[in-house]
Specification:
Number of strands: 5
Number of domains: 2
Strand order of the largest sheet: 1-2-3-5-4
Structural class: alpha+beta
Helix content: 40-55%
Order of helices and strands: HEEEHEEHHHHHHHHH
Largest sheet: 5 strands, antiparallel
Radius of gyration: 23 Å
């Protein structure tokens, strides 16, 4: 009985092995094809050619990216078992971070996937069966409690290090870190949500309405240091400055 179960399980793996990998090097769909090349039966597929180039270079694979524009995944490589092991070994050695989304926000060539990854995270979190959306504030919480849930760093929770270039908190993070924080926030909710929440808190609760006046200058500094993907998220919501006289 045990041998029969083992044999059927092996057949299942041969015919229908597939997985998704979300990594610091890219997003991949790995499948084992039932028909076709049985010397290199595994296909590593991607939405981005650059993600597969990353694997070829880092795993020293003697492969070329195959362009399949009419298939679901437009890019793929075929590998054998030993090459696939090299890919998995790379993934294991790449686990040097504590938070995947925060790492992606800072990862060159991968940060543009952050919005998509947050959407996947939210969908799976809802599937987990929570009674309310994961980022809703509980009664008695302020917006900075919500920031904690996303960033996980109390030192940034007031967002003055992001929205007030004239406050001492502005010096808590360099511009690269500010951009990383902003990307993570905008992957979850829009720029107006965060600036309005920030303004409402300092105007109505902290009784420091003057703090709000610095937001346009902060957004200008952030925009000038943002990459193209972040600029596209920011542009519809930037304050319009009066023309110079």
């Amino acid at each position: 009985m045990h041998n029969e179960y083992k044999a059927s399980y092996t057949i299942h793996l041969k015919q229908d092995t597939r997985m998704w990998l979300f990594t610091k090097h890219g997003f991949y769909s790995v499948v084992k094809k039932k028909f076709g090349d049985q010397v290199k039966p595994f296909q590593v597929r991607g939405r981005s050619k650059g993600d597969l180039v990353n694997l070829i270079e880092r795993c020293h694979l003697d492969e070329k990216v195959i362009h399949t524009p009419h298939a679901d995944y437009h890019y793929r490589i075929t590998v054998d078992g030993e090459e696939l092991n090299r890919i998995f070994e790379l993934m294991q050695k790449s686990l040097d971070y504590e938070n995947f989304k925060s790492m992606i926000a800072d990862q060159s060539g991968q940060s543009s996937k952050l919005v998509a990854y947050h959407e996947i995270w939210n969908s799976m979190n809802k599937f987990q069966g929570q009674d309310k959306p994961p980022l809703d504030m509980d009664e008695g919480e302020n917006y900075y409690d919500e920031v904690d849930k996303i960033i996980g760093s109390p030192s940034t929770r007031s967002l003055r290090s992001l929205f007030d270039p004239y406050a001492h908190e502005w010096g808590d993070n360099d511009m690269k870190k500010k951009i990383s924080i902003l990307k993570q926030l905008l992957a979850v909710k829009s720029l107006p949500y965060w600036t309005n929440s920030y303004s409402d808190f300092y105007t109505n609760e902290a009784n420091k309405p003057h703090v709000v006046d610095a937001i346009p200058d902060a957004l200008e500094a952030l925009y000038n240091n943002a990459d193209n993907d972040l600029k596209k998220l920011m542009e519809p919501h930037l304050p319009t400055k009066p023309p110079a006289k």
